[in-house]
Design brief:
By secondary structure, the chain is mainly alpha-helical. The chain has four helices and two strands. A two-stranded antiparallel sheet has the order 1-2. The mean pLDDT is about 95.
Length: about 100
């Protein structure tokens, strides 16, 4: 599978997850592509699609927490309007940065 094919799979998953959970994806095409590419590269390297903005430790139990969508994303979206990686946004805050 090429990186582009992996990116398509990751993007498709992210869209479905966002729709199911009432989020939206990063409205900035360049920002979205950057995160999707990071996830795809990690998926190709490690198997799981670890968040590109978090450190993979090698400890499977710890690293499980950072498989996208990570365990932190819901609280980050609630508090900040988006997750740390800027992949998922709360619909009412998308595109609004401080």
């Amino acid at each position: 599978m090429t990186l582009e094919e992996t990116k398509e799979k990751v993007l498709s998953y992210a869209r479905k997850y966002a729709d199911k959970n009432g989020y939206m994806l990063n409205p900035d095409p360049e920002g979205l592509d950057l995160v999707i590419e990071g996830l795809a590269k990690r998926r190709e390297k490690y198997g799981p699609q670890y968040c590109p903005c978090r450190i993979v430790t090698g400890d499977k139990e710890e690293d499980r927490k950072i498989i996208c969508p990570c365990i932190y994303h819901k609280q980050e979206i609630e508090e900040d309007g988006m997750c740390h990686c800027a992949l998922y946004f709360r619909k009412d805050t998308a595109g609004k940065t401080e």
